[in-house]
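Re: the multi-chain job from yesterday

Posting the exact lines I submitted so nobody has to dig through the queue logs.
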Amino acid sequence: MKKSLKYIVLAVVAVLVISIFAACGSKTPTNNEETTAPDEGTTVAVEESTAPIKQLVMGTNAAFAPYEFVDDNGAFAGIDVEIAQTIAAKLGMELVIKDMEFNSLITAVSEGAVDMVLAGLTVTDERKESVDFSDTYATGIQVIIVKEGADADFDFAGKKVGVQAGTTGDIYITDEVGQENVAQYSNGAQAVQALMNGQVDCVVIDNEPAKNLVAANEGLTILETEYTVEDYAAAFSKENTELRDAFNTALAELKADGTIDAIIEKYIPSES
Ligand code: ARG
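And the result, structure tokens for all chains:
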């Protein structure tokens, strides 16, 4: 009897020891911050329970509705914002948005000032030299906005074209008509304002933002000719293939379960 009691005590102790080891062991994978191991065990427990979840910093230019904009409550909203939020949640990360000039986004991500860019950003070979793109999640079309009445037989000859600086619209149109015929603005709304004021004759910009801008300003129309069709994707530093891969995996799941379509439909309701 005495002997078996001894075994039971031993067994209990063994189980305790194992579970303590297991508990310590399980700390390691969850503690993915770069903190060095503190000396006192108690400190570890406190740090872990209050450790902030890892941030996922997205650079964007939030003047591009319906992809990214600041809503009436002052919050970031739009297709890219919701896709990024959903992916961050899937990765167990907290999304932080940095709003900046469109022109500085590629440099910001390639230099590590932000982790990724979602900005209705078109995949181009030239940009691929500085950043890695995710799989594509939407299509954009460059269109031409003119004043109503100016749409008959439109061509660029003798025209001043307004663009958002650094966009594909800017790049393609500058190639076509020359720098001297292009006026760069820091966002699409400013370019459209210049069109309203007669400082430019047309604006080249992505189709969905174009529709919003035309709806918000009277007397404008979008030409039927589509200038170019493009793919939108998120951009990452070439050093950060791990994050890009995780993003792509999450994106594929969200495409498969209909989440991406639902987000797009929320901001761009398909005409029935
Ligand atoms: N799709 C165009 C480009 O990549 C324009 C994007 C502008 N995006 C923005 N958030 N302002 O160049």
